[in-house]
Amino acid sequence: MGIALGLVCAGALALAQDPPLADVIKRVDARLVKVYGAGGVRGLAAYGTGIVVSPTGHVLTVNNHILDTTELRVHLPDGTRLLAKVVAIEPELDLALLKIQDSTAPDDMPHFDLAAAAKAGPPKPGTLVLGFSNQFQIATREEPMTVQRGILAGITPLSARTGAFQVPYRGQALIVDAITNNPGAAGGALTTRQGELLGIIGREVSNELTQTWVNYAIPVWASVDLTDATGAIRKVTVSELVEKKEKYKPSNPADRSREKAATVETGIVLVPDVVERTPPYVDYLRAGGAGLRAGLKPDDLILSVEGMTVPTIGAWKDALAGRKPGEPIRLEVRRGEKIELITLTPDKPAAKPVPAPAPKPPVPPAR
Amino acid sequence: MSKQPFENGSVNRRTALGALLGAPLLAGVSVAWQDPVSLEEAKRIAVVKKVSPSVVAVVTGGGSGVVISPDGYALTNFHVVQGQGGALRCGLPDGILYDAVLVGLDKIGDVALIKLLPRKDKDGKDIAFPHAEIGDSDTVKVGDWSFAMGNPFLLAADFTPTVTFGLVSGTHRYQYPERGMFEYTDCIQVDTSINPGNSGGPLFDMNGKLVGINGRGSFDKRGRVNSGVGYAITLNQIQNFMGSLKSGLLVDHASLGATVSTSNDEELERPQVVISNLISSDAERRGLELGDEITRLAGRRVSTVNQFKNVLGIYPKGWRVPVNYRRRIEGAGTQTRQALVRLMGYEKRELDEDGRPVAPGKPPAPKPGRPGQPMPPGKKPEEKEEGPPSPALKLYEEKPGYANWLVNKQRRDAALAGLKAALGDLGAAAGVWTVKGKGFLGEKKLEAPVSLAWSELAQGKPEVVSARVDGVDFSLEPLKPDLTAQALRDPAGSGGMLAALHLLRLFLAKGDKAFPQGMVHGGETPLYPPLDQDPEDWWPLRKNAEVLEGTLGGSRALAFLVEEKGADGKAAVRLACLEVWLSPDEDPCELHLDRVKPVGGGRSMPHLITVRHKGSNFLRLEAETWELR
Q: Annotated catalytic residue: which of B64, B79, B455, B555?
C-alpha cells in the first residue's frame, strides 16, 4: 500500500513539476533569431529562422536560398538588427552555420548546447513537441516567434523516399503532425514540452506523388554516412558542424550517396537515369563483366537486391553501396513475363572509371 | 469522491490530489481512479459543453458567430455578413433558426454586431439567449490552450458547432489590411484549426471565456484551408468599438495624424518608433514634432511600427488617447512628455458596403499568396427565398454611412430622453436665462465675479448671449450677418466661449431640434476631466461617454453624456461636456459641466462650468444662482 501511495504521489509531482508552457516558450524564444536575406521572388520567402548555438553568436539554420546574399541579417530576440555571415555549410545535412558579424554583438548570448541536445538521442514517437519559427514573417524585430504544438508522428529516413521528395537531406527526419513547415519556418526549432531542442525545422516540402505536405525537422543527433573514394565511411553530424564552426570541412556534394564511388564493379549499364523515379532497366552489359557472367540480359528489370525492392536506379545504387567484391548478391529480375533469380558476383572496381561506350540500340531479348 | 467531480466546470489541485490519494484505498471498489490527464479532459469537456449553446451558425453568408448578451447581441465577421442586407438568419445549437438584424459594422476591423430576435414564452415575454461570457483578452498568453467553435465547411446542418483545440501561437500580432479592410491589429494567433466557415466564430480560453473572434489565416501554397496559422480579433479591441457598434454605426478606425517608422539608425541598440511625417492634425496641435520618439500609446509601450499599429488599431476614430514621447533637445538631453491626442479617422475615402470606394475607381486587385487573408465564407449565400419578409426588417433602416440608421435614431432618442429626465423640461423655459457666481480665470485662477446671460428664444427676436467677467462685458449675436471670425471666438483665448454657450442653450432647450439636420448618435468615447494641471498620466482618468453630434451653420457640437449615480442613488445621465468646433482644423471650445443641482420648477442645472480650450482651463465658474425664465 505504501509503495502504491508513493508511486501515485511521485506521478502527481512529476506532472506538477512541468514548467508552465509560457515560461518554456520564453526560454526557447530567447535562443532564436529571425534571418533576412535573398528571396522575395517566385514565392520564395526572403526571411527565415535560426537557432543560436554559441554564446558568441553562431546560428544554425537551413542551407536555403536566403543565405545567397552578402547582406545577410539577423534580428535578435530583443529586436537588435545585426549583420551575419555564412561560416560553414553541410549539404548532406542541408544545414548552414552563420556567425553574427557586428563587433557590437554580445558575447554572452543565450544559446542551445547542441552537443548536449544531440546526446539526449531520439525521442519516442507520440512525444508532445513544440515548433518555433518566424513563419509567414508574422513577427518583426523583438516580437516573439510563432509557436505551434504537435505530436512527433515518427522518425524515418527521408532518403527512403528518394525521388519522391526534393530534399537535399536524406537522413533520419522527425515527422510532426502540426503544420510547422510554412514559408520562413526553415531553421526554426522543434523542442520538447520542456523546451529541449530536438531538431531544426526543414523546408516546405511536398510528396510529389500524393501532393501531400510533409512537416519535418532535421534531428540534432542527425548523422549521415558518406563513403569516400577509398571506401572509407565518414559520418557527417550536426554536432560536428556546430563544434568545428569555421573549421568545419563540408562534404563534397559529389560525394552524395547516390553518386558515391562504387565499391564493386558489376559490369551492368542501366538505362539513363533521366527522371526522378527511373526504374533500373538493364541497357547493356559490359564484355566480360559480372552481369554478363551471371546471365543478365539487356531489358531485364532489376526488382530486388537481397530481398529489398529497388524501385529506382537511385535505390539500386544505394543497395550496392558498401558491397564487397567477390561476395555473391542475389537479384530478382523481371524478364518479359517471368521472374528470374540471379546470383551476381561483382568484381573489384576499376582503378579508373571505364569510359562508357556510346549507347547502342537495345538488343532484342534472345529467345 | 464524486464520479463527476467537475460538473461546475472547475477543478483545483486539492480535489485532484484528494482523488489521487483516495485511489489506492478504494482499489478493487468500482469507483474508477481518474488520472490527472483524464481530469483535465473532463474539465475541458465540461467547459465546451457550457459555452456551446452560445455558438451561432450564421446561415446567411455562411459563417459563424457568438451570442454575447441575453437579449441576443451576437458578434461575427464583417466579411460574413457583407452584402447580405439588414436581415439575417442564424441557427443556434438548440436547433432553432432565428431571424437577426444587422446592428453595427466595422469593415476595417472585420467585425459585425448583429442581434438575434428572441422567441416569446407563453406569457409573451422574451426568452433570454444563452450567451458567452466575455473575457479579458489581454490576459491571453503565448502557450495558453484555446478552443475555437463554429461552423467550418458548414458541417453543422443542425447548428451543432464544431470544436477545434490548439495553442496560442502569438499575441499582439499585426496583419496588414487587404483592400483597405480586414486590418487585424493586436490579434491573437492560434494553431487551433480555423477553416472556411469558422469566420466570425468564437475563440475561447480554457475557462470558457470569450477572448476572440476568428476570421483570418495565413495561407500560402497549401490553399485556403487551415495551415496552422489562424488569427482572432481580440474581444478587448471589439469592446472599444462596442459602444459605437451598438449605435448602428459604420465605425471607423483611427490614425494619429503622424506616420512613424522604426528608426533606421543601425547604431541604435534598440529599435525606436520615430515620427517621420506629420500632417495638420490634433497630434500636431498638441505639440508633437518630427523626430519625436513615441514610447507609449494609450498607456502601452511601443518600440516597433507593428506595435504602434497594433495599439492604434484597437481604438475608434475620435478617441482621445495619451501619447508619451521623448524629444532630444540639443544641450538639454532628452525630455519625456505626454500629450492627450484626438485620433483622426483611418478610412481615406468612403467605401460602399462591399468595401469598394464610392467614388468611381478600380479597387486594387487582391495580391495572391499573401498571408493573413480573411477566411472565405463557407459557401455562397443562398438564393433569396420567396416568402413573407423577415421580421428583422422592421428593426432595420438603411442610410448611407450607417449600418442601421433605425438603431442610431433609437439610441439618440433614448439618450436625449435620459438627459431630459435628469434636467427637467428646459424647453418650456424660453425666456432669459442667467447664471451668476464666482469665476476663476486662466491658469493663475484669478478670482472674479462672473455672470452669463442668454436672451429669450422667440421667433423674430435676435438671439444674444453675453458674459460679464470681472466687470468686462462680452456679447455675441450669433445670427448677425456681418459677424467677424474674431467675434465668434470671443473672449480671446476661449476658443469661442460665447458661441459654445449659445449652442449649449439651444441644445438644452431644444435637444435634437436645435440642429436643422437633427442629431446623430456618435457612439461612445472616453472623456477626461478638465484638470487645472496636466496629470502624470491621463489614461486612467478617462470616463466612458455617449456622444451626440449636431451641426449648425459651420459649427459642430458634440455632447458627451455620462451615466452616473445621482443624488438619490439612482443612475442618471449627466451632460458632462459640450464640445463646439467652429472649424474642423481648430481646437474646439469645451464646456465641462458638473455639480447638477435643482434650480426650481422641477429643473436642474450644472453649478460648475469649466470653459476649456487648447488643453487648459480658460474659466471656471462656480455658479451661485441660476434663473431660468
A: B79
